[in-house]
Amino acid sequence: MAQSGSVSGMHTIPALLARNVAQLGDKPAYREKEFGIWQSWTWKETADEIEALALGFVNLGVNEGDFIAIIGRNRPYLYWSMVAAQMVGAIPVPLYQDAGAEEMAYVLGHCGARFVIAGDQEQVDKVIEVQDQLHQFEHLIYLDPRGLRKYDHTTLHEYSHIQAQGRAARDELIGELERRIAKPEFDDTCVMLYTSGTTGKPKGVVLSNRNVIESARNSSEFDHLTSGEDILSYLPMAWVGDFIFSIGQAYWNGFCVNCPESAETMMTDLREIGPTYFFAPPRVFETQLTTVMIRMEDAGPFKRRLFERSMAHARKVGTKILDGQPVSLADRVKYAIGNAFIYGPLKNTLGLTRVRVGYTAGEAIGPEIFDFYRSMGINLKQLYGQTEATVFITAQPDGQVRSDTVGVPCPEVELKIADNGEVFYRSPGVFVEYYKNPESTAGTKDAEGWVATGDAGFIEPETGHLRIIDRAKDVGKMADGSLFAPKYVENKLKFYPNILEAVVFGNGRTECVAFINIDLAAVGNWAERNNIGYSSYQELAGHPQVLATIQEHVEEVNRSVAEDTMLSGCQVHRFVVLHKELDADDGELTRTRKVRRRIIEEKFADIIGALYDGSDKISTRTEVTYEDGRKGAISATLQIRDAAVVPVAQQMAAE
After folding, report:
1. What pLDDT digit, counting tens, does each position of 259-278 carry?
2. pTM above 0.90, yes or no
3. Which of 193, 307, 371, 500 is surrounded by the most beta carbons within 10 Å?
């Protein structure tokens, strides 16, 4: 299917929809689990739903060039609203559903959205809370009517009613809709997506039809995607990765998009769908691995030993078998037995049995975690991309997958490395501009179309693979001149199920120190098995046995880091287990769960000071945001621990 249409005839997503109706009309396009039952829509039914909504938009007064904001969890109806917006010449702007009202106010005000489509009452309430700040806002459309019956419906409309009005006015409005559908060109705007705002206010990234469709075509051909794929769409719709997989590639190839019932049922729904093409950021794979390790801790001694021995053999030969490399018959037989009793059932439990192509991206994944999945025969690969690139910069071809690189340039992508080590790229996916921000656009993309990634890396001359060291702004030098790359150490720490997040500091210093967040699920399970009572995250994080266990992990990572002569200076000398989880609501993480390092440095400056001044404890008070938006504060006295390090001179002598 991916090869059946040419880009020349398919300039917009609505054009791809029409082609899919003609060629795949009765094949499933969307599924959604609701009330425990999977609902399904064919491509023909999908087109009917989208057309009705588009006619309703015209009837409501949506003009060409308007911005339509979309807020909610992954649902077919909200994906349809993006395509319907494109049909009427408007620009869809998906927002993060877990963003607070003030965060939404900035994006809605910046783009000047006249219309907002909200998934449910929670999202409606956020918009209503800030609507006085939104001078261009006019109409709010809601999908789920529960709890909204007594609201003022002057500018509030139910999604199904907008569709019904569109259907009723079809004869009157279809000519205008067809005119608008035929009007857009290849270089007209397709969507606007906001960056996560790691270092400041989010920026509106304008992506054209060319950006989206050519990126979808090239990436689909790279991995031989077809109309027979199944994907599970569960990642935020505001994130470029979800847009390209669930809209761009889905419409280019004509495959089925499956939406889970809720975040809580995602893992169950994943097992039921059994996707053939799967994407997840490292945190999802880390969480799955933590769940596996917790279950094995609860298993009996025999099962635990069997699992450990089987996985040891898988790590030895599994990746080689996956890549088609030579492996002895005895090892193949032993691996096949392990697959029958260990790897196969485990893949089935995780919902990854049918995965033909799997990707992880968003940030670097720990090599140990990456190798764990590949050793079981899951074709997990790394992808390097950005919103500004319409995702794809580099990817790993089958048979060339390694944990220490992010692959080779994607089709039609050019790479170059600046003198300071920063990675630059140029491709058909390069964004048009940052909306209302010509200064940032000029600072990121030059006149020849080269885009600065902000990441430091190098291209291996012998393989052409790109290796990313870290964010360019985070890479520095220790006081002795040795390289400081915090993400490398943080990823190693997060391999342990007990550690959810880690932040390493040390630029310009004589030694590195670290903040650690424990994983409440994993450590809580350990506490339960050992009859250790606790009343809060803070109490468990400060338990002496927890601190001792985390210290063992840190010291084990130090021994591993010491083996890399280039980064051996990044060993962690002192650490503290924080009294709270780093949280996006508190500004410490982005909505895509990336660490806001500068904000953390400022917010916890007293703790960093104590780590470096030799203190053995620090009393601190931290402002927090509760789920209902209220502010509060928590106080704690944190224990500071020293970790053993491997002297660099000693390591060099050993080599």
Report:
1. 999 989 999 999 999 999 99
2. no
3. 193
